[in-house]
Amino acid sequence: MLTNATVEKLREMNLKIMAEKFKEQLANPDIASLSFEDRFSLVVDAEFANRKTRRLTRLIKSAGYAYSNACIEDVEYHADRNLDKSMIARLGTCVYVREHHNIIILGATGSGKTYLSNAFGIAANRDFMSVKYVRLPELLAELDISRAEGNYRKVFKQYRGVNLLVLDEWLLFPLKDSEARDVLEIVEARYQKGSTIFCSQFDVAGWHQKLGDSTIADAICDRIAHDSYTIIIGGKDSMRKRKGLKEKR
Q1: DSSP state of 194
Q2: Between vectors from CA 158 to CA 134 and to CA 155, what angle results, nearest 5°?
Q3: What is the crossing angle of helices 177-190 and 152-161, to 10°?
Q4: Which ranges in the chain belong to alpha helices (H)?
Q5: Model's pTM, two decimal places?
Q6: Cβ atoms of residues 37 and 66 within 8 Å
Q7: Burial of 191 (0-12, 13-18, 19+ CB in 10 A)
Q8: Furthest CA-CA distance within the chain
């Protein structure tokens, strides 16, 4: 009876894994030879590991990745892609996020920019950092709608506060002045406070003309270009052609 009551109390406290492991110990005669400290440590370790796993799952889900299974270890280093494996491995440790630096990923359509950016994002999740992935056109549309609905600050805060923001399709199209101001506000709010990954088909030198007003363009580019690691993905064949439509590396 005392054992059943203990199990129920653990479950009531939402310590379900500890409850199950405790029951398993009672049914396993080999466990009896262990000290109380060792037995208690086993049930605590099981609960701790489960909570970490659930937290990681939530972080990955809330990030909204295009590739939720992306992984640094699975990046493909074909010779024509000209990827620096040691640099990607270093960035995969997420030191750049802790130091509030950025990454610029450049490459043609289908080169694997999105997959690589998502792999960096999931690496940050594994360190239990918050990440948000979004296409720039979708972000700008969301901000425009939120402004009309009167909750702009609430939406803006979501993008300002994450440890790592991944902006895909960066400057795929020229921005209107109002959109450029929104981008400047986000870049400014995150400057030296958070990290951002910019995925673009266009070299940094071509960004300025897509940002409209020259003063705003100067301010945006100055906050990005001088505080970022740059990865340029080469390749004669797109990763869609190499891997089909299911994956990009």
Answers
A1: S
A2: 90
A3: 50
A4: 2-12, 16-27, 36-63, 85-91, 95-98, 113-126, 136-149, 152-161, 177-190, 214-225, 239-243
A5: 0.87
A6: no
A7: middle
A8: 76
* Sign, Cα dihedral of 34, 54, 60, 124: negative
Q: What's the burial of 187, exposed, middle or buried (CB within 10 Å: 0-12/13-18/19+)?
A: buried
| Residue in the block written with tokens 């951002």 | 196
The CATH number given to 65-243 is: 3.40.50.300
Residues 137-150, mean pLDDT to the nearest whole number: 97
Cβ 23 vs Cβ 7: under 8 Å = yes
Domain ranges in the chain with CATH number 3.40.50.300: 65-243
Instruction: Output b/e per residue, 8-28; b: 16+ Cβ within 10 A.
Output: eebeeeebebbbbbbbebeee
Question: Token digits for 60?
Answer: 């990955």
Task: Look up residue 212 and give its amino acid.
Answer: G
| Closest C-alpha among 50, 51, 47, 31 to residue 39 | 31
Tokens of 11: 């479950």
Residue 115 pLDDT greater than 80, yes or no: yes
Name the least confident of 5-14, 53-62, 80-89, 165-174: 5-14
Residue type (1 letter), 43: V
What pLDDT score does 238 carry?
Answer: 63
